[in-house]
Each structure stands twice: as structure tokens, then as C-alpha cells.
Design a protein that fits this description.
The protein has 243 residues and is an alpha/beta fold. It has a single domain (5-242), classed as 3-Layer(aba) Sandwich (Rossmann fold), CATH 3.40.50.880. It is built from 8 helices and 13 strands. The strands form 3 sheets. A 9-stranded mixed beta sheet has the order 4-1-5-6-13-12-11-8-9. The structure holds manganese (II) ion.
Length: 243
């Protein structure tokens, strides 16, 4: 079987005092399950020159969690620069180029967490450098003491794909972010908002599948059906691209 390639850029971490590049297995397992071929792009010196090769066979793009988006990539405020934490300029560069190419080729794009923020930025949107501090939000968007079990509510906007996938208008979601969407890029329509108004999901109504989610569906075991519907919709869009 010839599987369509989904490109996903790795993230860097230290293991035994050496850098390793990795992608969360939750994403990789889902791609394999959906009969897609995960193609992992390392964030190392020289990768930029390899991008044409990676792009030639790309049928879909998955952009996932990671460092802060550097404020030079959008119309930034002083607060954006003040509150930025760890950045990775090469990762930004690699992912921005992949997103631009995927948009030009009208490929399915799925952005999760940082991925949804960066996709918004590439399409002309802006970010909060720190949601808590800039939005003066009382709602916690990260809870380090209850990292994986913490949930906050979102209101799902009726008649959006997210509404179809979960079949409801209210959903408790996980939250592991300090950046967030400030102004949504013009091509996107919001699908979900937290109680403080923060956009937690959006899509491009004119595309087959261009979706950004601030939360992580692949890490919400209590919502297996809805989560899988999202991933299946992405998988089907990628399969259609190759057909
Ligand atoms: Mn949140």
C-alpha cells in the first residue's frame, strides 16, 4: 500500500547531556493508524537545504507542540517581546517554510498548540506572548501541578467542524500553553473559545482541512470518539490529496 506522507517537524531535548530530536508517540501512532506515513524532519543545521526533498512528497502537514514562536514573525507588541520564553529560530524557519508550501499547494494542515499559533502567524495573525499576563485572564491555561489532568472549559461554536466532531457545544479541554492567538488571521473562522474569550480552535472554511487547535485532542483519553473524528478527518483529507 502506498501511504501518503505527512510531514512533521521534530522537537529537540536533552537526553544524557546530548540533544535528541523527537515527536510525541501519540501523534505518530495516530498517523500510522490512519494509514499515513509520518515523515519526521529534524531540526538540525543543514535541514533547510533538504526541505525541497521533504516537500516533494508531502501530502499533508502536521505542526505540533514546542517552543515559543519568536515575535519577529508577527506584528508584535512590547509585551510579546517581554514575555517570550524559550525560542528555537531554526524550528520557526523550517516550519514557516513548510506551512507556506502546504498553503500554496492547498494541502491539509493540522496545527496543534504551538502549531496552531504558528499557522495563525504565517497567515497574518498575531499572538499573546503570555495569555495570563497580557490578557489579564483569571483562567489558567497551564497548571504545572496538575499538568495532564487539568481541564478548562471551551464553548464550541455551532455549525463548525469541531461541533460536528464532538457533537456538543461545551467541552473541557487540556491546556499546556502560555502563548495564544491574539488576532486571528483573516482566512480563519473561530471554532471554540475559552471562558476568557481566548480562541482555542479555528479552521479555514474554504479549505478541505486547515485546522488549528490550542488544546491536544490526542491527550484527552476521556474523549476518544471526538478526538478520533478530528484525526480521521485530517487523514481522509490527506488521502484525498494523494488519490
Ligand atoms: Mn487553554
Amino acid at each position: 500500500m502506498n501511504r501518503p506522507s505527512v510531514v512533521v517537524v521534530t522537537r529537540r531535548t536533552l537526553r544524557k547531556e546530548k540533544y535528541i530530536d523527537y515527536v510525541s508517540e501519540a501523534h505518530l501512532r495516530l498517523l500510522i493508524q490512519l494509514k499515513l506515513l509520518p515523515v519526521m524532519v529534524p531540526v538540525v543545521e543543514g535541514t533547510l537545504a533538504c526541505l525541497p526533498n521533504y516537500m516533494a512528497n508531502m501530502s499533508g502537514l502536521l505542526i505540533v507542540e514546542g517552543e515559543d514562536v519568536e515575535p519577529i514573525h508577527y506584528e508584535a507588541t512590547a509585551a510579546n517581546h517581554r514575555y517570550v520564553e524559550q525560542i528555537h529560530p531554526l524550528k520557526d524557519e523550517i516550519e514557516i517554510r513548510l506551512i507556506r508550501t502546504a498553503l500554496r499547494k492547498k494541502l491539509p494542515i493540522f496545527g496543534i498548540c504551538r502549531g496552531s499559533q504558528l499557522l495563525n502567524v504565517v497567515c497574518g495573525g498575531t499572538l499573546f506572548g503570555d495569555v495570563q499576563k497580557e490578557k489579564k485572564s483569571q483562567l489558567k491555561h497551564i497548571d504545572n501541578d496538575h499538568y495532564d489532568i487539568y481541564r478548562h472549559g471551551v464553548e464550541i461554536i455551532p455549525d463548525t467542524p469541531l461541533h460536528k466532531w464532538y457533537g456538543r457545544t461545551e467541552l473541557p479541554v487540556n491546556s499546556y500553553h502560555h502563548q495564544g492567538v491574539r488576532e486571528l488571521a483573516p482566512r480563519f473562522t473561530p471554532m471554540a473559545r475559552a471562558d476568557d474569550g481566548l480562541i482555542e480552535g479555528y479552521y479555514d472554511p474554504k479549505s478541505d482541512f486547515i485546522v488549528g487547535l490550542q488544546f491536544h485532542p490526542e491527550r484527552m483519553p476521556e474523549e476518544p470518539a471526538g478526538n478520533l473524528r478530528i484525526w480521521k478527518a485530517f487523514g481522509s483529507a490527506v488521502q484525498r490529496r494523494m488519490a
